[in-house]
Known about the structure:
Layout: H1 13-18, H2 20-25, H3 80-88, H4 105-117, E1 121-126, H5 132-145, E2 149-154, H6 161-165, H7 176-186, H8 192-201, E3 207-212, H9 220-235, E4 240-247, H10 259-262, E5 265-269, H11 275-288, E6 292-293, H12 295-305, H13 309-325, E7 330-331, H14 333-350, H15 352-364, H16 369-382, H17 387-397, H18 404-415, E8 419-421, E9 428-430, H19 435-444, H20 455-462
Parallel strand pairs: 1-4, 1-5, 2-3, 3-4, 6-7
Antiparallel strand pairs: 8-9
Helix pairs in contact: 3-13, 4-5, 7-8, 8-9, 11-12, 11-13, 12-13, 12-14, 13-14, 14-15, 15-19, 16-17, 16-18, 16-19, 17-18
Amino acid sequence: MDHDFAAPRPIGAMDWLxxxxxxxxxxxxxxxxxxxxxxxxxxxxxxxxxxxxxxGTTEMEAPRPLAMGAMAAPIRPISxxxxxxxxxxxxxxxxxxxxxxxxxxxxxxKLVEAIVVQRKHAIIFGTRGSGKTSLxxxxxxxxDEAGCVALYGSxxxxxxxxxxxxxxxxxxxxxGTGQERARKLAEGRLDVAGLASLLVExxxxxxxxILDEYDRVRxxxxxxxxxxxxxxxxxxxxxxxxxLVGIAGDVDGLIAAHPSLRRHIxxxxxxxxxxxxxxxxxxxxxxxxxxxxAADGVEALAGAAMGSPYHARLFGxxxxxxxxxxxxxxxxxxxxxxxxxxxxxxxxxxxxxxxxLFTRALRETGSGRRMIALAGVVxxxxxxxxxxxxxxxxxxxxxxHPAMEAEATExxxxxxxxxxxxxxxxxxxxxxxxxxxxxxxxxxxxxPRAAVATPAEEMRAMLRGVDGL
Length: 469
């Protein structure tokens, strides 16, 4: 809102900034603000670094242009191509369209058969970035087309049984009487028996409740209540099935089900995508961004991703950004190498503890370096790792040798701080389930030479001369 006052007052820098919209629209004109197509940024003339007017000037003078000539490199303008790359290789949002879900036809068919046809509950599990949420969402679309009502919710760490299922009450297909009953039930805290009775007696259409991020639930009581609900819904032939989705190495990682309930639960592991499917995913993303990728570049990206669609998109996006920055529409193998290095740097910033642990393990292990890398490969392909699994794979890939067991034991010992046990206690998963791919990238880098100073050595050199250092 503009206010005009009769009394004149000096015009300073802040006044000029506040009046800038009117100046852009036209001096003194009271009209709708017009944003010019190309804003005038004058970057040529130097200006003193001060908020005050330079000597010899008056406050009424127009501000002098911003000086950026001293910068090492000019700021890159916003690129529409970069925006298309981010959209095409998006790693932030799950896939919601079946046409964007690559390599999961078998999993979708099994889920439809088990849940829609056989009326079982299901558990979708795997590592982070494997595509669990995308698989669940696309399955929900297929279930809708089959005449079911698929409802989607997400769990939190503090959730109890009430918090997990209350959001579904207002969305379930019920008659007016059922809706009134649900409203009264929601006035208090939901309990297993009350919710099971409502779902059996009042739901008028086949419904599927998809509960994502179930691994975040910490309450053992809530988990037991969920298992009891699934058992009740099965025993009394409810038209409602429940699908639990979460990070786990096996079914026990998400639900401790009674043996009689296990017969009515369909487990669906989200395994690594085969390399040909992963290569098609990369080619499709590149095509959407208006780019092409050299054959050896696609092979390198797919190999680094180790079956993970998340890592394939992430690595592909970084490589595509390198090519775009160079003004090319074809991604080369050199772009891929630089993109992988960039992705590793970003991960190191976000996961400093794991990166430092891997760096130390790879530097200090000597000849066992390849065994540490193999541990990352095994974890990426099998979700969980153990000494027996590592030895079995090492024998097949690296060949039997006398020091193999000692190297495998040492590798797991060095990686132990980054691992967490599965519920059974016999297997281990990386706490950061995105880490195995980055561990392999780090192992492929040449070992640092002794002559290269570490950050600690460099800082010690800075302190030289202080108290005898």
